Request: fold
Amino acid sequence: MSSYADVAASGPKQSPEDAAAPQPPQIIPNESVTTSTSSLVDVDSQSVRTVPSDFLEQEVQTDTQAARLERERDEQTAREKARQKKEAAKKRAARADNWLLSRLAALSDGQSKGLVAANLAAVVGLGAVLGYKAWGLHERGQFTWKTAGLGAGIVAVVGAVEGVFGRYFTKARGSKSS
Reply:
C-alpha cells in the first residue's frame, strides 16, 4: 500500500506558478495626502474657543448637560402626572367597589337567595345550551377544535365573571352577617 505522498509525487508536476500561494490583494491608494489630514482640528482656526474662568463653578457646563437636565425634568413631570392618574384611577375603582358592596349588602335574605337561585339557573342554562349545540354539531359532523375552543372560552369568561361577582357577594354578605 502506498501513501498519499507517494501517489501525489507520482502524478504530473506543477509549474512553480501553480505551486505558489496566491498573491495577497494590494491596497491601491486613491486618497490624496490632503484629504487624509483634513479631519484633524486646526488649532489656529477661529473654531477653538476659550472658556471663562468661572466655567467649573457653573451649574450647567455643556449643551449636552443642559439637554440631559431638561430631559430629566420632563421625565420627572411625566412620572408625577402618571402617579396622579394612577391614584385617581385607584380612587374611582375603590368608589365603584364600595358602591357595589353597599348594593349587595342592602339586599334582604330573600332577595339574596333569589339572586343566588337566578345565578345558578343562568349558569346551568348556559351549560345546557352549550352542550345541546355541541351535541348537534357533533351529530352533523361539524364539531371541530375551533368550536370546542369557542365553547371553552365562553365557559372561561362566565367563570371569571362569576368569580368576581361571587367575591363581591361573599364580601358583602359576610360583612352583613358579622
